[in-house]
Amino acid sequence: MLSSKKHTCTLLLAVPVLATLLLAASAGLAYPPAVGIVGPARNCLDCHVSNGPWTEEAKVIVDLLDKDTGKSLKQPDGTFLIEAKRNQTKTLVTVLGWPKEDHAPVPYRTGWVYVDPTTLETAALSKFAPGWEVNLPMACRLVGDTAKGFETANVTALPMTVRPTDAAREAEVELQVLLTKGESVKGNAKEGMLGNYFLRKIRLRVVD
After folding, report:
1. What order of strands is seen across the sheet that includes strand 61-66?
2. Max Cα distance, the chain (Å)
3. Tens digit of each residue's pLDDT (9 = 90 or more) over 15-58
4. Taking the model in full, what pTM does it have?
5. Dist CA 196 CA 51 (whole Å)
6. How far out from the chain centre does Cα 105 lie?
7. Closest by alpha carbon to 99, among 179, 193, 182, 183?
8. Which of 54, 123, 155, 184 is most exposed by smallest CB count within 10 Å?
9. Is 150 helix (H, G, I), strand (E, B) or coil?
10. How far apart (Å, rounded) are the C-alpha atoms in residues 138 and 134?
């Protein structure tokens, strides 16, 4: 009888442990994969290739919106301008995608990163502009979001909040983008996945 109770207790203890292991395994296999620039890499093309069907710059959707107003921050020269008051937060929305009516296949996911090229050679953990805090400078997201003004496109749309600290100065960062479909071969990201690379310049301005 004592042996039976012991076995029952062992079984009851094993159930939550097994559930935890299953959840951990699911989390390990869950989407999204990691995104970022590591080591001496200059941009996404150090690891990936731009070999997909989404090649036309005139068609690709790369936009940055003010979340409060919904207005694009795109300037006449094609760059984007983020203006923020010192020590105050400003939330933006990164919108990426491709027109629905185009003959090209629908991108499956988009990956992107905001990076200040001057930080790539440094030991700084953040590759965003020095003195600017940011909560989501990189992401990988399945296409299928909705965004006002982009109803005729297959897009991803995700907020990002920035805050210029006392140390912040005017700066320029790059928005590096990959539209992708398929899966990369483990250990060789240049094989298996179709993708196209796009680059946009973002100017950061502190309003005192």
Report:
1. 61-66, 90-99, 153-164, 132-134
2. 82
3. 333 333 333 333 333 334 455 655 567 777 777 888 899 999 99
4. 0.80
5. 6
6. 21
7. 179
8. 123
9. coil
10. 10
